[in-house]
Structures are given as C-alpha cells and as structure tokens.
Amino acid sequence: MAKADTLKPRLPRGFPDRTEADLLAQGRMLDTIRQTFELYGFEALETPFVEYTEALGKFLPDLDRPNEGVFSFQDDDEQWLSLRYDLTAPLARHVAENFDAISKPYRSYRAGYVFRNEKPGPGRFRQFMQFDADIVGAASVAADAETCMLMADTLERLGLAGQYVVKVNNRKVLDGVMEAIGLAGPDKAGQRLTVLRAIDKLDRLGADGVRLLLGPGRKDESGDFTKGAGLGDDAIERILAYVGFEASPHDGADRMAFWEKFFGSWQAVVGTSETGREGIAELHAIMRLCEAAGYGHDRVRADPSVVRGLEYYTGPVYEAELTFPVTNEDGQTVRFGSVAGGGRYDGLVGRFRSEPVPATGFSIGVSRLFSALRLTKSPLVEGAAKPGPVVVLVLDRENIAEYQALVARLRSENIRAELYLGAAGMKAQMKYADRRRAPVVVIQGSNEREAGEVQIKDLIEGARAAEAIASNAEWKAARPAQVSVPVERMVETVRETLARHFG
C-alpha cells in the first residue's frame, strides 16, 4: 500500500489498552477481592456483555434516548440489544429467568467489563471493569448491614486499613425530604432524579455546585451546560441542610444516646413523612448491627450525602470512600473519594415477575481502586514484575528444527520458553531477550551442537557482573554468568538458575 493509503492506528476514545504488567497487578487485586467475597459465602456468576435493551428498561442512564448512555444495536430479528452498562441489571434478569432453581437468599459475585455511551474525559472511560457482590431474596436490613461489612473487610484485606470509611444512607429518607418539599408523585419523577444526581456530585462539586444543579443549572469548565432541577431557594436549602448533617460520636460517648439524637434531627427534616421515618429506622438498625459486629464509626457510618445516581435504589444506599489526600488537576489537596457503592433495589428483579423480590448489593470500580492501591504503593500492585520467558537464540537458521526441539524440551518441563523467530543476528537477539525481560537465554552454535552441548546465560547475574567489568575485552574474557552444559542437563541448569532468582 502507498503511504497515503495506510491506516492510522487510533485507539477509540474512552477505550483503554492494558499492558501485561497492569493486568498481572490488577489480577492480584482481583484475587484478594474474590477470596474476601467467597469468605462471606458468595459464589461466582458470569453474564454476557449483551442484554436485550428492554431488560435494562427505564433504568437506562438516559431515559429519553434509547441509544444514549448505552451502546445499542438491532439483531437480525429486529430486537434491540445493548452492551451492559452495569452488572446489576443482568443479575436481575438471570435471577428472574432461573428463579426456581436458585437457592434464596442468593449470594453471587460477578466481575467484568461494562460500557457507557458517554463523553469520555480524564479518568472517565466508556469501557471499564466492575466487581459486584449481591444478595437476592433477603428483605431484612441485616443483609444491607452485612454488605457494608463486606465492603469494609474487602478494603482491609487490600491493605487500606485506616484509609477508608463506608458511608450509609437510605433513599427512603431522601424520599421523605422530597415529600416535604413537594416533589412526591409520579409526575415529579424526572425532577426527583435530577435532584438525586445533583446530590450525588456533592463531593466533587461542593455545596455551591450542587446548589446550581438543584436550581437553574450549571455550566462546567468546558462550557457544557447541565440543566438544573428548578427548585426554589427554600427547597434547595432544606436539601443542603439535610445532606450536611454529620455523624461523629466521640470516643467514650454513649453511642445509643448519640444515635437517638442524630436520627432525631433527621426526623425533623422529613417531618410527617412515613416513608422518611421508615428509612431512618432502617438506617438506625444497620448502624446497630454493624457496631454489634465490631464495625465502629471509624469504618461504617451514617452519612446523608450518599444518594447514588441510579433510579432503581429503593432503600439503604452506601459508598466506600478512601480518605487519604491526593492532588487534583488544579493542584488542590482533596480526598481520593469513592471506590465502591451500591444499595437496595427491591424493584429490579420484580420487573420480570409478578411478586416483589428483595435485593441488595454493591459494585467496586476496579480501575479506580487499582489507581488508589498504586498511590498507596500497595505490595499487591507494586510487586515484582513477572519475569519474561527463557529465550532460545537461533544462530543457525537451516537447523531451526534443532532449536525448536530445545524449546519443546523446556516447555515439557513447565518452563516458560520461546524460540526467537526474527531474522536478526546474535547481538540483536540478546537485546531482544533483554526487552522481553528474559532471565535466561539458551545459546547453541555449530560447535555446541557437534559437542551435544548448550550455553546457558544468566542475564540477571550477568547484568550485575557487568557493572564491575571495565572493558569489552575483560567482558569477553570473563563471560560472566554463562556456563556450557550437555543438552541433557539444559532443563536442570535452567531450573536451578531460575530458582536462584525467583525461589
């Protein structure tokens, strides 16, 4: 092809590539999460990337545009399909489809990529991984309390003790506040959702930014305008007062008395709303259960600012927030923020069935959590990189079958190995082995072949020795970390060399 006709290599916006080093480090983190979930009795489930669009239904991120928020396409039978935008809606479909075969309460965990048809930006991807844990079929708030404990224990096992807090709220309380300011009823559903999404941005935008989103709207730094909820000043201040409550019992305080006073102040905000009062009682019960199990205020606490942006939550909602400071794009010191969140969604499975099905659970943002562990230099993600393969050099191409036999012998003994398949000479092959992070190379020229031998070169020890060798002549004379052995001893010698460095 002419140069003008060649394709330009372009990564689609919002879809990241991942290197082996990142995948291995992330894999160690995922293994720790998986082990913690299994400790609580959760079992693995995998659902496909694609669901019927109607299974997502009114819970699409954008209610008015069927192909906005999600990626959708038509099948050959003209049915609309969508890439999943979270792992919760597919779980609801799976449970409903297999309802009679599943033991309930059903504890499951899922890990996988989800897709958002949204404007990408710094730290905002259109493909990213989530790791979820859910309990379906348990109406008691004890299931919500256990979910909060699981979030806390997962972060503890990832080495983040003392650097996180699980914040808990209840959507029923906020529904009570909505009733108190005149936003009850189906005709106000869109306005309520706008309010929820505004409050959900409190950590990022602060009270002033949320005030604009609750009122006329807000223009961001790029000039994009977000329409507001259109509330009056009194309603805005009532909501901001509610989300500004803080629960901070000091050491030695009578905790029961504290919680009575704290939730009493919430009751003043919800007024006579029965929904709001029910939410406060549920939240109080969750706090009591967590404290009884040893999860104090430093790990799990009530926080009215937690609302979660999705519409399908019906009760308790929670977020795991990392509390250590980081520097944002403007050079300001801020908290790292949320790495996981979820809540109760009693109506989602019931969309497929005639009876209600209670459910609760949470999702970990894998990429964000991975970034946090990098910042804390966690050994899970900062561990030594996986060594490359043993590389068998090819010095005599007409005898390549002989070299392939050497590689096969190493692989048959479970030693990771590859044959050099390029066309370069020995010097370039050695550079290739260095780039591949090969700990060992196997060399066999015509003289070694006639003698039935191979040269085993320890590249790690050789690099150390090279630092003490002054001249090229001295290097050639010393031939550091290189031994000649019979072919029959090749596997044994390579294994001994690897054991010296990697145990």
UniProtKB/TrEMBL annotation:
Its EC number is 6.1.1.21. HAMAP family: His_tRNA_synth. GO terms for molecular function: ATP binding; histidine-tRNA ligase activity. Its main location: cytoplasm. It comes from Methylorubrum populi (strain ATCC BAA-705 / NCIMB 13946 / BJ001) (Methylobacterium populi). SUPFAM superfamilies: Class II aaRS ABD-related, Class II aaRS and biotin synthetases. L-histidine binds at D86, L87, T88, R116, Q130, D134, R308, Y312, Y313. Homodimer. This is Histidine--tRNA ligase.
